[in-house]
# Entry
Amino acid sequence: MARPFKICPDCGAPYHRECYEKLGRCIHTPAHGAGYEWTFPYKDDALRTCPSCGERTLRSESVCRCCGAALPPEGAQEPADRADSDEHSEEFDYSTFYRQFQETGAPQVDPLRQTYQAAFGKEEVMDGIPCKDWADFIGPASPAYLSAYCRMQLSHTKTSMSFSAMLFGPFYFFYRKAWKPAFGFLAAELVVALPTLLSMMQATGSPLTAGISSTAIVVLSRIMTVFSFALVMLRTLYAKWLYRKSAAERIRRIRAEGVDREIFTLCKNEKYGQLIENLENVEDSASQMADFALSGQTVAQQITMLAGLTAEDADAALQHILSTDRMAVMDILPDGTAPLAENEEEAE
# Structure
């Protein structure tokens, strides 16, 4: 018979088996790559043993967090039916434990964000770019990549295994749109294939290989074999670092160039078309005019404003949003509160 609880094999986090199987994974999966290990959220001196169910619960609470029974004053005699029971029962309901822990309002710590801050500081800035922008640029694979970059940063190394780059070669960089390393490795692969090409040309009697002996081709082939192995190792170990450099250049270029004129025109025309379409329908028209009225505008004013909006206006707004002067950092204390600013402390 299977035990009612499940332990994550990667970080050691405990779960109710039914909850774990329903979710299909550990909630800390994104942080596994960075070496995250689960720890019990309370120190031992803050806990006591419940005399009703035998589980550990907080001393500061009047009822047990596990079974809900009222806790007698410490030092009171335990019930007789609990005298011979084990201190830790296998019937612990971890789903109830997690639900009660969340209902207490205790701060929920994101282990992945903790890793970012440990590697890149509280500002979470890598290569001058916020980690949020990195995540938006990389896409769904961002947790794996950012975890690898955190690990590389903490260990002060540029190497990280990439089996995708090892298996797919230059096509890995083409898929990631890292054009410089993509074309560089593609050129290197063509050089590696040169002995094979010469052998085929010599076998077909091509005049281009008339002055090349078979011995020279064999020697060149062996040299290229060693070069090919070194190329694979270089690609496997440094692919993520090369992608990081290429991605940083593209993100900076996107931020510097601002709004794409063609995309801006398409979005503007689409919005204008939506306004006209809504006005042609009685119900949508009434709803649209009500929304504009609440914002202090008429339909005509909204259309006029949209018609006068230019790509330069959108670009200026974007640059204003991306300005470092508008960036803010908030420190969250362990109790879930934020420290007061200096001017607020002086006011008090």
User: Anything to note?
Assistant: The mean pLDDT is 75. The first strand starts at residue 5 and ends at 7.
